[in-house]
Amino acid sequence: MKAKYSSPQQFFRQRRMRLTVVLVILLLIYFGSVLLVNFNTFSSLAQIPAGLVWLFKTFIPNQHTTTYLGPIFYQLWRTLIVSISSTICAALLSLIFAVLGAKTTSPNRVLQLTVRFGASLLRNIPVVAWAMILLFSFKQSDFTGFLALFFMTLGYLTRAFTETIEDLDTEKLHALQAVGANYFQCVFCGVLPEAASTMTSWVLYMIENNIRDATLVGILTGTGIGFLFNQYFKSIRYDAAGLIVLLIAALVIVLELTSTQIRRAIA
Amino acid sequence: MLKVNQLDKTYGQDKHSLKSVSFTAQPGEVTAIIGPSGAGKTTILRSVNQLIRDDGGQILLDDQDIRQANKAELRKIRHHIGMIFQNYNLISPLTALENVLHGRLGAKSTLAGMFGLYSTAEKTEALALLTEVGLKDYAYQRCDQLSGGQQQRVGIARALMQHPKMILCDEPIASLDPKSTKIVMDILRQLAREKQLIILINLHQIDIAMDYADHIVGINDGAIVFEGPTEQVNEAVLQKIYRQSADAKVKVAANES
Q: What are the transmembrane regions (chain A) (predicted)?
């Protein structure tokens, strides 16, 4: 764009004006939608403190809650295992798909498009929908949860790995070709070592992400920590449900810290 | 001996192309291709090992035409042509030693190459080559922890691991400081002399070309405008090579000073 400004003052005046216009438009959209849904900003805001107080009173675990720790830890453990195993299985398959689907390493254009389309399809079906669809074929079991997480992770990681491979410097692959390396040697000796650390980061991120999603999936498939949460919640044992929420958060934080350490160790 | 005959290349619509390029490069000599940016230096160099597919002509290395080779033959020919690059193009998370061993990939079976199964003899040779280029102490360092000059020397060791007849050097010193430049160029000249290799270098530093090359190929806009021994390069020749190019005057001026 080659706009002509007579002076710097005029340039900044125009820029300020554009900003003002954008702000006005945003405000109009807000008030428009508030009118549409009959949402009252101020009375809603006023309700927040009372709501929070109720939340804390009922969901804070008390002394009695500790009796639930046994089953909670057992289900938390199962959920962790399902999340990790589904992520790792999906990662191995994604690796193959990504090599076939990345522009720089794809042996064939049809294959490349198929992989990309397939991955985007898997990725864009929400994990909840996956769980509900699979529920019909595989009933309420850990395996259904595993599959739901697996398919979504497969879509995500294939996409992430594909982009990781495409971001690599193709010149490095040319260097291996120049040595006389064939396709498989280029992939194994060049692409994979170069992409390994980024890919590991993605896998660790997906494990964290899948723990969170596993909770939701569990509610639907009747397994794992999600099922337990749902059960306690519906039987008004809010303190136990609250404990589960706290423990899931703690688990995810511990995983995050661990994966930061792992990432640092392999970088 | 490398003999390039009437090489042609067009990129889509009349972008940088080669127009019937012919020249020779002798074993034991350093041959430098010089010319303005975008004249086609890289295209020529990369046609020689067919990283870039040209449109027509002949590339004879010891009377074998690389352009006629099928996939398996091409792999075998490439195995004996080393190549080093401006950006070194090492696999950076791997150690110097592993990168040197990659020089054997062209000679190994697919599986042995994929999983890095190298013999003791190969590992010993790789270490010896690293010692030869002065990097014995860095053999187990990741390549991204090495300096530019050191990485380029790993690149040279990788090329030597191929037992090459010829080493192609694509702007090998463009990213190096003067001290590393001297080390790398000294090694390349020494290789030409002692191992009777064909050393073919793309350069845009005329002074380096004049100091190190035995034979100069001058190219302008995809066509050879000069080929001959370095002694024959004079002001008139340089004017011809760098004529009508934006950086010509700067280059010539730099050379005079």
A: 21-39, 76-100, 121-138, 144-162, 214-233, 239-258
